[in-house]
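Re: weekly structure request thread

Next one in the queue (217 aa):
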Amino acid sequence: MVELISYEELRKIQNAERDNTALQEIDPTFFEIVREYIKIKKKIVEENKNRDNTFSKQTLEKSSQELRNIYKILEDICTRRYRKLVTQAVTNVTAKIHNTEKMLEDEEELYNKMVELLKQNKEAFIKTFEEKQEPEKLVKAEGINKLIRIKDEVQSFMWKDSKTYGPFIKEDIANLPIDVGEILIKQGKAIEIVLGENNNEDAKANNAVLPDVQKTD
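Done, posted below.
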């Protein structure tokens, strides 16, 4: 025969869960005992539901109220334990060892799923700050492009390749076809940036991969 749990004992379990931040250990027989307790209370309610004497009415009212309270207590215990599971999962999402000793079997399964989901979302969140767009690679083929720094404002102009370049403002960095770059340098509008050389004022730009700021229609 299953040993019955009293209403007061059930309240003690609820209070222990409420008054402690850590999960409280639940006896493996807890569910079976509570199920039997509810079963008996429901039987008492059914037996006294259609009786018209004072004792039966009092018994019906008392048992019905106890049943409602039991379900409220169980729901409260469940809510408090789940809240602790969520807190523990968030706190220990990156931990290598997880303390699941006082978790029920279904709680441990839920906890592991939450940890995995939180871990995936945390990694995705961090990754959004680490990923960078690939910079446009400079064309380094011999005699094709020239990297220059603009010294003076240059209005947009069309070149013989039928492309429009510019406008550029002072300190713009441009990666232009070699003949376009040389014209701007000869006109005193720009100076060449020589990658790998560290003996001029543009040395600080030499080791950086700079975007092609050529502007075309």
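The first strand starts at residue 145 and ends at 150. The chain has five helices and five strands.
Next request, please.
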